[in-house]
Design a protein that fits this description.
Number of domains: 1
Radius of gyration: 12 Å
Low-confidence stretches: none
Structural class: mainly alpha
Distance between the termini: 31 Å
Largest sheet: none
Number of strands: 0
Order of helices and strands: HHH
Strand content: under 5%
């Protein structure tokens, strides 16, 4: 369950298309990997992004 700080971010991210969402997740992952705790709550946001990526990927397969 997202915290009150994460909910608006995840709501905004859920409106992004698949390629942009994937690019954002990859960039955030690389930044978090090399600079720990650069972005507060980055690990939790990455988990939410991963969930959104899988959900969007599943929807794309159904539409195609």
């Amino acid at each position: 369950m997202p915290t009150p700080l994460q909910a608006p971010v995840l709501r905004w991210l859920s409106r992004l298309s698949y390629p942009r969402l994937f690019l954002l997740a990859a960039v955030l992952f690389v930044v978090d990997l090399f600079v720990p705790d650069f972005v507060p709550l980055a690990d939790e946001i990455l988990l939410g992004l991963g969930t959104l990526l899988l959900a969007n990927w599943k929807d794309r397969k159904k539409a195609g």
